[in-house]
Amino acid sequence: MKKSSYDNDLFLRAARGEKTERPPVWLMRQAGRILPQYRALRASLSGFIELVTSPDLAAEVTVQPVDELGVDAAIIFSDILVIPEALGLPYNMVEKVGPRFPEVIKSKADFAKLRPAEAAPDHLGYVYDALDATKMLLNNRVPLIGFAGAPWTIFAYMVEGGGSKTFSKARAMLYREPELSHLLMEKIARATAAYLKGKIKHGADLIQLFDSWAGVLPPAHYEEFSLRYLRLIIDELGGVVPVTVFAKDARHAIPGIGQLNCDVIQLDWIADPAVARQQAPGKVLQGNLDPVQLYAPLAEVETATLAMLERFGPHHIANLGHGVYPDTPLDGVKTFVNTVKSFRY
Length: 345
Ligand code: CP3
Fold this sequence. Notes:
Elements: H1 10-15, H2 36-43, H3 48-52, H4 55-69, E1 74-75, H5 82-86, E2 92-94, E3 98-100, H6 108-112, H7 125-138, E4 144-149, H8 151-160, H9 168-176, H10 178-201, E5 206-211, H11 219-237, E6 243-247, H12 254-258, E7 264-266, H13 273-279, E8 284-289, H14 298-312, E9 316-320, H15 330-342
Parallel strand pairs: 1-4, 4-5, 5-6, 6-7, 7-8, 8-9
Antiparallel strand pairs: 2-3
Helix pairs in contact: 4-7, 8-9, 8-10, 9-10, 10-11, 14-15
């Protein structure tokens, strides 16, 4: 694994399974969403995509939570949907609605129009530039997390065309056209692996894979269509940096994820860390305070955070059980972070 020297390397030491004096802490979706500084910047722009594709601004937003909250890691401001875009399927971010794809993959003919997987990084230079700019701003204070969507979650958007409660169109393709589904999944996985290798080259110290829609797949489909392609990506990366996997709402998947060559497993807030420890021995666990807990009175946020730290014990990276919600009170977020930072094993 790559050697690093940071003023604060707690996050990387914990991710590699080393014993630390306290757990490191960061929040999924900490870049953007919660900070007033982010909202002010965002309001001055045409939209989310302008921010994602402007490296200096993306770097600024990435570093804001490090300055403002004192978290132990930064996560690059970007989105999982840059991969479909790089493959030739652009998205819009519709205010108060979320991502929408004007065109989707319905057939083999649609699939054939996509760019080759190896070409994806050529269309993602703006992300690499954002990483370079972020490394300058961070100036070795804390490590930088790079990320991507898991192939199933990206497939779900490319076939469905946007968010959905059921993802029934995307799931129907798995049943009706398994061969086409595998072709698309493999293309996404290969593009993602190539993209992530570039992110690592541009300074990402750990990679987190987000399988946000893992929870809608039955276990057999999870194994066949998701786990298999997570494995492809992780094996392709070859252990040069630690990897974290998050399969939201898919507790049944933890034993399978435990068999992957990853270092860290993120748990959602329903998952029981004691069960996960048994099912995935040797992995570091990340999570898993209920994001809505941060709306409670501050004394309760502190008590709940401490109880969570006790439940996990060592080999833990403190985080929420999903991304921090946009209207979370900033005081709740700060209490969460500060409670972890004053804790000692
Ligand atoms: O963690 C971070 O702070 C880094 C940045 C990051 C964003 N998206 C920025 C963003 C990360 C890691 C993501 C991942 C992402 N994007 C996921 C997986 C994680 C999860 O939450 O389950 C998913 C499913 C997406 C797709 C996506 N992007 C949706 C559904 C939306 C709209 C709703 C929302 O706010 O999440 C986005 C837009 C988006 N991505 C915003 C941000 C800060 C909101 C942009 C804005 O309007 O300012």
